[in-house]
Task: structure prediction
Amino acid sequence: MATGTAGTTARDLNMQVKHTIARTLAYNTAGAATGVVVGAIPAGAIVTCWNVHVTTAFNAGTTNPIAIGTTGTGADVAAAASITSATAGAYSSANVAAAGARGALPSDTTIYVSYIPTGTAATTGAAVVVVEYAFIG
Result:
């Protein structure tokens, strides 16, 4: 995909619009316990908000934490406590990222989502994860 920046895979439309990266996550998504890539955000971008749309409730026996971060199991964009993944519905930040991801990103940054349940294994669960960001190139 053309990004407007040579040698990078971070998404930049080169327009004054809000950008998004998104992916689906299910209870059985391969690699979810160590984090799966949502997408890459270019250096200088500011994460403005995140949204998680739980389309099917996750049903692990004890906890069903979904976290969004700049590392595989990080939660610096969205802490697991912010997302009630055991209940279908839409969850979002109050138009800001968590403290660890505030401000302009110093370099191209990969965003991950993780699901690390406890208790009996989940047999259902699906969500769409969306991270919004602004970029002034």
In short: The chain is about 0% helix and 35% strand. The CA atoms of residues 58 and 85 lie 6 Å apart. The radius of gyration is 15 Å. The beta strands are 19-26, 36-41, 46-56, 66-69, 89-92, 109-115, 126-134.
